[in-house]
Design a protein that fits this description.
The chain is α+β, with helices and mostly antiparallel strands. The chain folds into three domains: 7-119, Acyl-CoA dehydrogenase/oxidase, N-terminal domain (Butyryl-Coa Dehydrogenase, subunit A, domain 1); 123-230, Butyryl-CoA Dehydrogenase, subunit A, domain 2, CATH 2.40.110; 233-378, Up-down Bundle (Butyryl-CoA Dehydrogenase, subunit A, domain 3). It contains eleven helices and ten strands. A hairpin with a 2-residue loop joins strand 2 (140-144) and strand 3. Helix 1 runs parallel beside helix 4 (65-79). The longest helix has 37 residues, at 232-268. The radius of gyration is 21 Å and the shape is globular. The relative contact order is 0.11. Flavin-adenine dinucleotide (FAD) binds next to strand 1, strand 3 and helix 11. Residues 89, 123-126, 131-132, 156-158, 202, 210, 359, 362-366, 368-369, 372 line the site of flavin-adenine dinucleotide.
Length: 380
């Protein structure tokens, strides 16, 4: 076992740290306050190689692997979780399944555009009737010659407002069990009959857009099927195993931001004639945050490492997401507490981190669903 990072991994971590410090940190509060989609920041991420972490160099990617991506995502999310989730979905939920399941034509067309940041990707599985029970989705696609005709409404689509390419999961066979009749389709922005609906107002990650997608008699070429017809649910679930490593990395980044802000504040703020950092009650909060972050980091890196080796990682990704997201929420709460009244004000970043942390226990499988996945493995 070797915990040392390779030179390439150090390079991507340092490059992401620089991007976070120069580009994201100065703008994160404004992105949150105005609910501004970080498109400019996404494009810059593309120029710096962060839009193609998992894409091979021959398709224009930086090919740093899952460990490299996790290291970079820690840094990016430490500064701005809205940009973090945009990049996580784009890399893990769009480029990764396209690389694994796409035809040569699909890969040649889309991967260079995704990796350069020219096109932003979105992943659309959820619907009003199907969140945790994703296989219950209803949005339908009926074969008509060389096309599928798609009708229905999808919900909760991260980056829906700005994406150019959507992986949309639709029901192609209503006569088999729920999970067996779903297909993944690549849908381009601008396809007639496809529109972006309502944009949600959110508690946190306010720069990220979360939208409805509406399909009305929308004709999608059969050549845009990703993988095989009726095999979409397997693709959706396998993709989420990787996505959870991305969200767990986001959670670690948010938790680290909470710790960093708390250490700084605890050393500066004086009460009873001394810095509050000298009180054991505050030291224990800092220690607990630090210890839990270390554990979460290692779990995330282990899951990423297994994925890089091509080994099963569903259990490890669920464990990493469960622990990292709980750690982010723990650290968000403690960081506000360390700041006292100041922590409740928008003037200090921990208020934003506290709100941003909340979503990490919900999307890409709630905490309860992670436990379900973990228990299924343990009780096998
Ligand atoms: C900001 C945001 C961004 C999102 N981005 C995307 C995206 O890009 N693409 C996409 O497809 N989806 C996206 N989602 C959807 C997200 O993945 C779902 O919200 C999530 O999976 C939970 O589904 P739900 O909201 O329907 O909750 P429900 O499934 O209705 O769950 C409600 C509660 O019941 C619990 N529960 C449900 N089933 C069980 C069970 N079997 N055992 C125990 N407890 C259970 C849940 O854990 C939760 O606590 C996003 C959501 C949000 C809020």
């Amino acid at each position: 076992m070797d915990f040392h990072l390779t030179e390439d991994q150090k390079m991507i971590r340092d490059a992401a740290r620089e991007f976070a410090r120069e580009v994201l940190a100065p703008r994160a509060a404004e992105i949150d306050r105005d609910g501004r989609f970080p498109m400019e920041e996404f494009r810059e991420a593309g120029r710096r190689g962060f839009a193609g972490f998992l894409v091979p160099e021959e398709h224009g990617g930086s090919a740093v692997g899952n460990v490299g991506m996790a290291l970079a995502m820690f840094e990016i999310n430490r500064a701005c979780a809205s940009t973090g989730v945009t990049l996580s979905v784009h890399n893990s939920l769009v480029s990764a399944p396209l690389l694994l399941n796409g035809t040569e034509e699909q890969k040649a067309k889309w991967l260079p555009l995704l990796a350069s940041g020219e096109v932003l990707g979105a992943y659309s599985l959820s619907e009003a009737v199907s969140g945790s029970d994703a296989a219950a989705l209803r949005c339908s696609a009926v074969r008509d010659g060389d096309h599928f005709v798609v009708d229905g409404t999808k919900l909760w689509v991260t980056s829906g407002s700005h994406a150019g390419l959507f992986i949309v999961f639709v029901r192609t066979n209503p006569s088999v069990s729920n999970a067996k009749g779903i297909t993944a389709l690549l849908v381009e922005k601008g396809t007639p009959g496809f529109s972006v609906g309502k944009k949600e107002e959110k508690m946190g990650i306010r720069g990220s857009s979360t939208t409805e997608l509406v399909f009305e008699n929308c004709r999608v070429p059969a050549a845009n099927v990703l993988g095989k017809v009726d095999d979409g649910f397997r693709i959706a679930m396998h993709t989420l195993d990787g996505g959870r490593i991305g969200i767990a990395s986001q959670a670690v980044g948010i938790a680290e931001a909470c710790l960093e802000a708390s250490v700084k504040y605890a050393k500066e703020r004086r009460q009873f004639g001394k810095p509050i950092a000298s009180f054991q009650a505050i030291q224990w909060k800092i220690a607990e945050m630090g210890a839990r972050i270390e554990a979460a980091r290692l779990l995330v890196l282990r899951a990423a490492w297994l994925k890089d080796l091509g080994e099963p990682h569903s259990f490890e990704a669920a464990v990493a997401k469960l622990e990292a997201s709980r750690t982010a929420n723990f650290c968000g709460r403690e960081a506000v507490q360390v700041h006292g009244g100041a922590g409740y004000l928008v003037d200090f970043p921990v208020e934003r981190h506290f709100r941003d942390a909340r979503i990490t226990e919900i999307y890409e499988g709630t905490t309860e669903i992670q436990k379900l996945v973990i228990a299924r493995h343990l009780l096998r």
